[in-house]
Amino acid sequence: MKRTLTAVLLSAAVLSLAACGGKKEAAPPAGAPQASAPAAGAGGTRETVTLRMLAMKQAAYSDASVQAMVKKFEEKNPGIKVDVTFVPYEALHDKIVTDQASGAGEFDVVLVDEIWPAEFAAAGFIRDLSDRLTPEMKEGIVPAVARILEVNGKTYGIPWILDTKFLFYNKDMLAKAGFSAPPKTWDELLEQARAIKQKGIVEYPIIWSWGQAEAVICDYTPLVYSWGGEILAPDGSPRFQSGPALEAVKWMVKTLDEKLTNPNSTSALEEDVRQVFSQGQAAFALNWTYMYALANDPKESKVAGQVGIAPFPAGPAGAYGVSGSMGLSITKSSKHPDEAWKLIEFLTSFENQKEYASESLPIWKKAFDNPDQIKAPRELVEAAKTQFASIRGRPEFVPWYNNFSLKAQVALQNILLKQKTPEAALSELAGQVESLRKS
Asked: Which residues form the signal peptide (predicted)?
């Protein structure tokens, strides 16, 4: 049955929410808009305010696109200049923590992964922006991401990147193996991969980002849900060390044992996945939205025009996508919060986002009521409609999620490299989780 994305997302809204402990300011009250200090030069003329923004390389929007957005903002706001610093995702969290914890206060606006607000709010790194929200923001943002920067009922940022992972596939390779459509289930994925391998089309049909980083958690999480398992219970207790969750991890190992998964997956990150797929060295790749435009760009890819995109396949308990959305926050140390808010309003606006929809789908519901008004391929929009119907977040509701993730990454590495059995590695991880709960 056909449904609009708006209806689909409304039904999935509660699946990606995270709300954990916060921290109050002494003065002014948390959430109160703070006026920037006057900036006047001789004769009362206003001096240019320079905002510093921390963004991520290859995060949905390309570096060039972000710079183009900033240029438009500066043209509309001649009294404000924006300097953007780009860092890899793996450095983003610690860059924010170091900047704020050290008192350096280099950045005004920072890109925040949906798994960090509970931690950052508790530490006092980012501002409560609840009183700045417009009616359109409160009602018009896609429900699946509307509250990703909300902690204990307070809003610490605005979503900017609406993202989930997709199954990318090489249409020509599938056709040569006798398949007219991508796999609907994880079992079908292995069946198609076996056929592609047996016909000598490509040696390792599947490439994943299973390196020791957050990337592996983003593949592991939807597999656990698809097998009917859970990672953490609502109280934070471990649920991954047995049952369906354990079977999901064993399935990951199986794909390596059968040489269907590229062995380099165990050290790969998302950009590695994109490069392997774009070089024609894989039939299937699991990656974020940003890869679609690049893999179809002849300047970036040898397989441009052959790239298909589909929702994640289903496991025994159904199909689940992983939420990887991100938002923009204002740091507590910013001396220009009003100007920073203007920048956030501009960057997250529908008018700005619709121009770059091929890189990251807009956060606004109205973008999907009439997809023709946004610059995004129909194939991508259709895949997103299905994927966002079953999107689930990582267990980011615990304030110690980052510490948990680091330990889980080690456990998964030990399993995938066969340094420990799945049972032993996950049992050890469960003990570490209990320690985190008590800390």
From this structure: 1-18
Model pLDDT, residue 80: 98
- Residue 58's pLDDT is what? 67
For 181, half-sphere exposure in the C-beta direction (CA atoms, 13 angstrom radius) is 6
Rounded Cα–Cα distance for residues 208 and 119 (Å): 28
The phi and psi torsions of 317 (rounded to 5 degrees) equal -105, 10
pTM of the model: 0.79
Mean pLDDT by groups of 10 residues along the chain of 439 residues: 36 34 36 44 68 89 95 98 95 96 97 94 96 94 88 95 95 99 98 99 99 96 98 96 97 99 98 98 96 95 98 97 95 98 98 90 85 82 85 87 96 98 98 95
Q: Which residues of 377-392 are buried (b: 16+ CB within 10 A; e: fewer)?
A: eeebbebbbbbbbbbb
Residue 109 has φ and ψ, to the nearest 5°, of -120, 130
Separation CA 237–CA 221 (nearest Å): 16
